[in-house]
Amino acid sequence: MSGVLVTGATTPIGEALVWRLAREQRERRILAVGIEPPERAPAFPENVTYASADLSRSRDLRRLLFGPARDLALDAVVHTAFHRSAAHGEAGHRLNVEATRELLHLCDRHPTIRRFVLRSFAEVYRTDAHEPVVIDEEQPLDLSPHAPAWIRDRVEADLVACTRMGMSPLHIVVLRAAECVAPGVGSQLHDYLQPRVCLTPLGFDPMLHLLSIPDLVRALALAVETPRQGVFNVPGKDILPLSAAIRAQGRIALGVPGPMLSPLYALRRAARGGAEFRYDLNKIRLHFGAVLDGERARSALGFVPEHALVWPV
Amino acid sequence: MSAPVDPHEYDPFGMSRAGVRLGRAIAHPMYARWFRVQAYGRDHLPARGAAIVVANHAGTLPFDAAMLWRDLLEVPREAPPRFVVDHFVPNLPFVGTFFARTGAVVGNRPTFHRLLSNGELVVVFPEGTAGIGKPFRERYHIAQWRVGHAELAIRHGVPVIPAAIIGSEEQMPAIAKLPLRVFGAPYLPLPVTPLPLPVHYAIHYGAPISFASRFRPEEGDDPRAVDAAANETRAAVERLIADGLRQRRGIFR
To answer: Would you say the pTM of this structure is higher than 0.90?
Structure first.
């Protein structure tokens, strides 16, 4: 392995991945990419080069791939850059979907890049009363017209990568990761668990599957090396009901009739500006369980989750 | 703070030991005192390995499922039985959660497949909602017989244990099915009595039916093979019902 480009390198997940890849092989060249200017980027080991780029701008992408990425003769891309804010809209769509599409197109004809790893999300799966609670990679995706754009963008980005498998000269791996509950990674559940009182739909206590940053980073590092191409669930170590997660976090669960939750959380958002938790994005998962089947990742990538979350998150 | 979450407390479907204990405590007075359930042929159930139990289903509210579940806890197996429930059940507040804690799962092919691969005992009512809502005059007549259990039994080469539940079909005559779709349920039943009648329950288990020697796993895709297998399980349940009705002394004794 000669070199890896990591997008989203200034997020907690990207940064941990860069450190891990750099430590694994000292001779490996790594190009860490973030939107922050170099002076505000985190410190990285010496085999890491930092490049600042706005991936939603086509010009920046071209400059990056056919500039430093080619000079360093990188052969793999790990794309972890996603809009962390749920305040979606055009900007979110440009980064979450269009940048992924364009990045893939450019990598297709890149002189040195041969592998592409996409960090995708378990949220792409459709879950409801009818669908299996334990989800393998064959589960239907959430393309329903009621799905919020935040979900549909994730589904589209996932499919953009999936449809190119076998058609493109690239070796493509898509990792559908369980929710990484940590600060600063755009986790809706993390924000949900911050207030003292967590409102839950009365009478529902669905199973959640949670992933720690070290486990996700290890799965991404394994995906960079794997000879297999395909879609893989990335399960976490923690499988627990919503009520147990709230208890582990030291919060109080308060059951409220389901239909009242949407206005209550809308009020809360309005009352305190920066609150990121949006009930409409999480309504289904607060009612119906979703647990990933990690068998494919285990047999093909050799990935088994090892690090449980440390509560409170 | 360390991790206070016990990773073995819940299985991925949401079943917990505590939930099973609670379910047992709730079902037991009904099982022992109200319905005075008697079981025959429980030794037909395997102590280990995957198997499917199929039974008749009736009685307006699923007390028959609760009694069969409670009775199957008497089988010395490692894990409690897994009941396959209708798609609207997870929509029901409290009930859906409680059922999940006791091991119920929504019936769909991937889940069924997963449970059988794990070597679990899966319980199915092939009559489904048509069974539990059948009119009183049609008691002990099979309302419909879905074939999914036969397909999966063939595909996985697992035995099917037929069972007849006697008593349940008289427990709670209904006056009407109100056309209210509350939480996605197909209708709201209106029983004659607020509580089920104290009928005497008998559960008759039959000899396991094995398809493994007669069908290849691929024949799970062959509709004729599946229908033939399902007819066999249906006939076995009907025979057990007829024998059970002949043997009983009365509805309440």
So the answer is: yes
